[in-house]
């Protein structure tokens, strides 16, 4: 097992990020009420919820003690992305995504925008490599990018590392390659997490929580397996316990 990055974000309870894939703030609030009086989970706010609820709602999450992964996947000219990063930094969120395919200058501008804001000690920038619905056919035939998906992901991860990104978003299938060939300390955030036997729906490159951790994933983004569960807190707690057990088992085998 590849050991995870040493980071304040990697306390056991933070390694599972719950994707709040809800169409409105009130609906997300109702879901989060399951955690009233409990330790608050690390949550992801994607484009749908951000556009519906807005930055003020996100800032309120932060103020009430949630760690927030703002998944906006910024992709524009360098100047525009730098400005967007400065705006997001003022919200106090922990993670923000931008597309690695925007190129090195765009990612470097994002880093410069963050440093100019003085938020470098708080906000971490993640470069999205290839989205988990991208398979070989889509990559080669539709996007007309030659080669294997894994090779494309590794290339984008290397570009992100050269550009000063704190981490990357990739499927569990590519984590070990990134850790071994690019940078062991690059934070790897893995979506497309499904429980055994669960329908992957629109995802193509999926993996169970235990398998992703064994591959070396640092943080797991989990949506429907938790948000659609009858008892979401219990599912979240079990995932965290399983991750800890997986880590202990691998450590024992290694020693």
Describe the structure.
With 255 residues, the chain is α/β, with parallel strands linked by helices. The protein has one domain (8-254): Aldolase class I (TIM Barrel). The chain contains ten helices and eight strands. The chain has helices at 25-32, 47-63, 78-89, 104-117, 136-142, 149-162, 172-181, 209-215, 224-227, 232-254, and strands at residues 16-19, 42-46, 68-74, 95-99, 124-128, 167-169, 187-190, 219-222. It has an eight-stranded parallel β-barrel with strand order 1-2-3-4-5-6-7-8, surrounded by seven helices. The longest helix is centred in the C-terminal third of the chain and has 23 residues, at 232-254. The radius of gyration is 17 Å and the shape is globular. The model is unreliable at 251-255 (pLDDT under 50).
What's the alpha carbon Rg, rounded to whole Å? Answer: 17 Å
- What is the CA-CA span between the terminal residues? 12 Å
**Could you tell me the number of beta strands?**
8
Helix % is 40-55%
- Taking strands numbered 1, 2, ... along the chain, how are they ordered across the largest sheet? 1-2-3-4-5-6-7-8
Classify the secondary structure makeup into a structural class. alpha/beta
> How confident is the prediction overall: mean pLDDT?
88
SSE run: EHEHEHEHEHHEHEHEHH
Beta-strand fraction estimate: 5-15%
What do we call the CATH homologous superfamily?
Answer: Aldolase class I
- Give the low-pLDDT segments: 251-255
* Shape descriptor: globular
CATH secondary-structure class:
Alpha Beta
Oligomer: single chain
- CATH arch. level architecture: Alpha-Beta Barrel
Per DSSP, the total helix count is 10
GO molecular function: orotidine-5'-phosphate decarboxylase activity
Organism: Melghirimyces thermohalophilus
Function: Catalyzes the decarboxylation of orotidine 5'-monophosphate (OMP) to uridine 5'-monophosphate (UMP).
Protein name: Orotidine 5'-phosphate decarboxylase
């Amino acid at each position: 097992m590849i050991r995870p990055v040493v980071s304040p974000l990697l306390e056991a309870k933070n390694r599972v990020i719950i994707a709040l894939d809800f169409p409105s703030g009130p609906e997300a609030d109702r879901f989060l009420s399951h955690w009233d009086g409990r330790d608050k989970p690390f949550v992801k706010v994607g484009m749908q919820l951000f556009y519906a609820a807005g930055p003020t709602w996100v800032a309120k999450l932060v103020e009430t003690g949630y760690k927030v992964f703002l998944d906006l996947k910024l992709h524009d000219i360098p100047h525009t992305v730098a400005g967007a990063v400065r705006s997001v930094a003022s919200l106090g969120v922990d993670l923000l995504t931008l597309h690695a395919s925007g190129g090195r200058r765009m990612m470097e501008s994002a880093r410069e925008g963050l440093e100019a804001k003085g938020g470098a000690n708080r906000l971490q920038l993640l470069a999205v490599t290839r989205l988990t619905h991208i398979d070989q056919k889509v990559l080669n035939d539709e996007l007309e990018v030659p080669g294997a998906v894994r090779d494309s992901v590794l290339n984008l991860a290397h570009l992100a590392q050269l550009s000063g990104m704190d981490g990357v978003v990739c499927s569990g299938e590519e984590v070990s390659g990134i850790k071994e060939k690019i940078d062991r300390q690059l934070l790897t955030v893995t979506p497309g997490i499904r429980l055994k036997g669960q329908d992957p729906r629109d995802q193509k490159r999926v993996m169970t929580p235990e398998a992703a951790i064994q591959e070396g994933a640092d943080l797991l983004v989990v949506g429907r397996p938790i948000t659609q569960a009858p008892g979401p807190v219990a599912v979240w707690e079990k995932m965290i316990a399983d991750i800890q057990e997986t880590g202990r088992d691998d450590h024992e085998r290694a020693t």
